[in-house]
Amino acid sequence: MSATTIPTAAVTRPWKARLRLEASPVQVIAALLVAAFLLAFLIVPVGRVFAAAFAAPDGGFTLVHFGDFFRTSLFIESFWNSAYVAGMSVVVASLIAVPLAVILARYRFPGAALINTLGVLPLVMPPFVGAVAMQLVFGRNGSVNLLLMDWFDVRLSLMEGLNGVVFVQALHYFPFILMNLTASLSNIDVAMEEAGQNLGAKGFTLLRTIVLPLALPGYLAGASLVFVKVFDDLATPLLLNVTNMLAPQAYLRVTSVGLGDPMGYVISVILVLVSVAAMLLAALLLRGRDYATQQRGGGGLGRRSLSRGGMVLAWCFVIPVLLLVLAPHFGILMLSFATVWSFSPLPDGFTLAHYATVLRETPQFLTNTLIYCGVAGLIDVVIGVTIAWLVLRTRLPGRRLLDLAAMSALAVPGLVLGIGILRTYFDVQMPNGVSLATTGLMLTIVYAVRRLPYALRAATAALQQVHRSLEEAAENLGAGKTTTLLRIVVPLMVGGLAAAFVTSFATAAVELSATLVLAARDVDAPLSYGIYVFMQSPAGRGPGAALGVIAVVTVAICTFIAHRIAEGERRRRSRGHNEA
Amino acid sequence: MSAAGVEIERVSFGYGRTRVLEDVSLSIAKGEFFAFLGPSGSGKTTLLRLVAGFGTPDSGRILIGGRDATKQPPWARNVGLVFQSYALWPHMTVAQNVAFGLERRRVGRAERDRRVKAALDLVGLWHLAERRPAQLSGGQQQRVAIARTLAIEPEVLLLDEPLSNLDAGLRAGVRTELVELQRRLGLTTILVTHDQEEANAAADRMAVLNEGRVLQVGAPAELYDRPVDRFVAGFLGTANLIEGVVEQGSFRAGALALPAPDAAPGRATLALRPQALALQRDGGGVPARVVRAEFLGGHVRYTLDLGEGIALTAEEPHLRGLAPIAPGTAIGLSLDAGQASLLRS
User: Which CATH architecture has domain B6-230?
Assistant: First the structure.
């Protein structure tokens, strides 16, 4: 230690003075409130799940439940089934997304706008809504198979068992790979490719040795996300009646065997561990490969013209993919207007009755969703801004820990958080005798926790774009830290925050995994739960589809608004730069 | 390495309606260090890229080593291009970058390893062979880019603004290294630059381009001393451009008169370098008045008024004890006709 070189004033400064310098009371209170929220609704519930998985009947530590897990053939089968479905979903999604990304990023293709639309369409359709529609279109007795039977006497078993789940998930999640890979491909400096050509590489060799390795980080980011989301998903397998997978097993254990049964918790722990392992593996593979920042030259990959044959090939790929992607949208729309649709390629007749039914008999599904998700979005924005502000603009000790805790929600599947909330709050009774864990308030909080990471990243990005000098100018004119935050910083961040709010709202509106675990009564339940309940009976499929269409339209409108806000914000910013 | 000459024959090129190159013809000898010099937008980089095969001329031919390469794709030409951004692949090590071209040429493993080491030794970076490009400094990255190109033993070496991404302090040294390397290998080299000092110092000969046309070709000193038009005169250093008339075998502008026995009569422009004007403190020669004197260290730059709207810039070497002439002083000016160039209009 070179203590002798430090001025004595610093050494003898009393700890109180140091603390006063590091944080104001407002900062401390804000940090404590956020910490309490995260502790109560994320860390303690997930901790209780872990504790239950390792707890012996006498309260001590035991691995006996994990031993049971690995001795039960159903669980082992479920584990491999989940791994198979997640892995195959990545493969199938890649088969769809990689060619689309290559066409989009590297060629002048007249259907580029179409591909971009393709990349958004599946995202506005929650997979569990899509699943029912896909069965109507591609199922054993779906439109496609009925026509194929009529014409060629063959039947495609696309929707049977695990492969049905793979099919639905791949069609829903391929945009994650498409978006990441396209961004990564278009960020490659054109000189990288030309240098390869100059040294003698062409065609497929060039793609294999230069272009694809450089795009690998984007692909891995997208693929790992797809793997985790599919591995953790509960609603899609349940709706397709596939229960021999991990998430459905955990759900069935907790809901039918009971909260005391340890296996639900053991499976939850395994879900979390696999999610974290997949994310860590991706991060490990990506380390040192942030190529985008290592390239000096400007300009993305040169787009070249497609040959005639290439153009035909491209269209022959894009059109079928478009039809596949549109199939669930088309199916759910048909179903919502259908009188009877069974054993026929198209419905027998059309009616508006299903919409009337859901709007008259169960309007609370829609209003509940609007309230829960609206409030959850607001909570996310407030907490997101608070954490971003603490991290970027204060020297409060432990501020990075808050950020980490909020982000860790990414690794917690909705099902696991739901189970944890049940375990923690089930015994807390509300005045009307309902358990706190199953109230609309708790659903709102769970949605907020689940979407917080996205809102937090958006708030951090928005705050990073507000130059520090704008705040210093306000402070120079006499405004305190809090006044500056409220009067200067937040107004400047408003565009980014609005986009974060809308995104939180839209994704929460179609969240089902945690909802299924928590929602107990129809009066408190949101739209996603309503769709699930209706879809359980053949008679309810029409109204369920009508609710599904309402959900899809809501999400689509929100996505469009978020996109417009983000665009407007970018334009405003670039205009500002031009003037400066 | 088997160096080859490059013949550019009447090449024109454009993107849609935008004309980038118009009827460019150049002959670059085997082993020559040649420079394309011009401002941005002059078409110099486009011309270099055409030699490398990135783009096909709308008309004209490009011959490399006597064979017609006009329609050859980049990967079939044995022409090494060092990119302005270096374009080192970040996912490969230095050695893998250098080995890439050899692998494409199916060079055997032993021979490949030997040539990778030779190329990296040549630029003094063999000890960094296992590093990634991101771990190198800008100057080291550039040397790797050169080694990667030299490893394939190209017939022609193309350098696209090789010094522009380096710190100012490094440039002169790297430039000298480049020239020494080129001399040692006897490699036909084309350098693209917008910096006249860079081209002057490195090139045996150079072509000045502007708006897609070659204005003049020659050795650097030749172009500096005898520019053919206003653009070349102005682009290669400072020049006084004097509008006047040629009549009866001499050029006249105001009080100035210089013999021009071979020039055609009519309006003409005369170019004079500032250091070719000798100031006569005792008032001999053409009368002039000092408007402004700027002390620049090694020399003093004077702005002179010769009357009738003629203003000239003159530069005088500064020596200790020689006081700058104060503005307003009347002096004389002597001109050497041998230092003047009559420009084509």
Answer: 3-Layer(aba) Sandwich (3.40)
Q: What is the domain extent for residue A430?
A: 22-62+351-580
Considering the domain architecture, whether residues A375 and A511 belong to the same structural domain is answered as yes
Query: Is residue A332 domain-shared with residue A474, that is, in the same domain?
Result: no
Distance, C-alpha A329 to centroid of its chain: 20
Q: Please state, in angstroms and rounded to a whole number, the distance separating the CA atoms of residues A128 and A135.
A: 11
Q: Is A265 a member of any domain?
A: no
Domain shared by A407 and A545, yes or no: yes
Counted domains in chain A: 2
pLDDT range class, residue A573, cuts 50, 70, 90 = low
Digit-coded pLDDT (tens) for B271-299: 999 988 888 888 788 889 999 999 988 89
- What's the whole-number mean pLDDT along residues A153-180? 84
Lowest mean pLDDT, pick from A296-300, A434-438, A479-483, B247-251: A296-300
The number of residues in chain B equals 345
pLDDT of residue A302: 60
Which amino acid would we find at residue A346? L
- Check if B56 contacts A (Cβ < 8 Å): no
pTM: 0.78
Do residues B210 and B42 lie in contact, with contact meaning Cβ atoms separated by under 8 Å?
yes
Together in a domain, A55 and A75 = no
Q: What is the C-alpha to C-alpha distance for residues A172 and A494, in angstroms, rounded to an integer?
A: 31
CB-based contact B85 A295, cutoff 8 Å: yes
Per CB-CB distance under 8 Å, the chain A contacts of B83 are 191, 194-195, 297
Compute the nearest-CA separation of A308 from chain B (Å): 20
Q: Is residue A356 part of a domain?
A: yes
Cβ of B295 under 8 Å from any chain A Cβ?
no
Q: How high is the ipTM of this complex?
A: 0.80
Residue A226 counted as domain residue: yes
Q: For testing the chain B interface, which of A199, A285, A295, A301 should be mutated: the one with the most B CBs within 10 Å?
A: A199
Give the fold, CATH level 3, of B240-343.
OB fold (Dihydrolipoamide Acetyltransferase, E2P) (2.40.50)
**Backbone CA torsion sign across B127, B129, B130, B133:** positive
Of B79, B85, B91, the CB nearest to A191: B85
The length of chain A in residues reads 580
The domain spans of chain B are: 6-230, 240-343
Based on its alpha-carbon atoms, the radius of gyration of chain B, rounded to whole angstroms, reads 25
Instruction: Tell me if A291 and B133 make a contact (CB, 8 A cut-off).
Output: no
**What phi and psi, each to the nearest 5 degrees, are found at residue B20?**
-105, -40
Query: What is the per-residue pLDDT across A278-320, written as a single tens digit (0 to 9) for each?
Result: 988 988 888 767 676 555 544 455 667 778 888 888 888 888 8
